[in-house]
Design a protein that fits this description.
2 helices, 3-stranded antiparallel β-sheet, alpha+beta, 183 residues, Jelly Rolls, single chain
Length: 183
């Protein structure tokens, strides 16, 4: 007959799983936004891009190069993405996606696709010429990375809890059977 200590082991397995899930999330949390290319707008930047779908985010609250930027309203801002030959890339609206990571709060505003690798210029300016400085961030698969980290964290926690429940259940059944055979 298993001892009652197996219940403690079951609890420790579950708690260790939660600790592992938390550690996994913490270690990856800061690096989730590393793949974003950030720039102060109005302004321009050159980005080395590979083929695929990209999203432009407006970081309405962000720290960039030690300076804090906050701008909720960027109406009238015009954004252009062009290849090295100056040909504009078609921009479209992006599904509403929001994030809050390591000093950056952002919302998706535009999306575009790149067919060939190369350098691309992103230019952002207000049509009126006046507007608040803000941060734009361009990323590929950024939201997918966030979901992957969150879902993996949840999976680690569920597996650990499941293992703890399994250990406790097996312990209970074996102890119960042992008591019944003694009776």
């Amino acid at each position: 007959m298993p001892t009652r200590q197996w219940y403690l082991i079951a609890l420790l397995v579950a708690l260790a799983g939660f600790a592992c899930a938390g550690l996994f999330f913490w270690l990856r949390f800061d690096s989730m936004s590393e793949g974003l290319i950030r720039m102060v707008a109005p302004g321009e930047t050159v980005m080395a891009l590979r083929p695929g779908a990209y999203t432009v985010f407006h970081e309405y609250s962000a720290v960039l190069d030690g300076r804090y930027y906050e701008a909720r309203d960027i109406s009238g801002m015009h954004v252009v993405v062009a290849n090295e030959a100056g040909e504009q890339i078609a921009l479209r609206g992006a599904p509403d996606t929001r994030y809050e990571l390591t000093g950056h709060k952002g919302v998706s505003v535009l999306a575009f696709d790149i067919d060939a690798p190369g350098n691309y210029r992103l230019e952002a300016a207000y049509e009126s010429g006046n507007g608040p400085e803000t941060v734009l961030a361009v990323g590929q698969g950024f939201i997918g990375r966030i979901f992957t980290v969150i879902l993996t964290t949840i999976a680690i926690a569920f597996v650990a809890v499941g293992a703890g429940i399994a250990i406790a259940s097996v312990t209970y059944v074996k102890r119960r059977r042992a008591r019944e055979t003694r009776s």
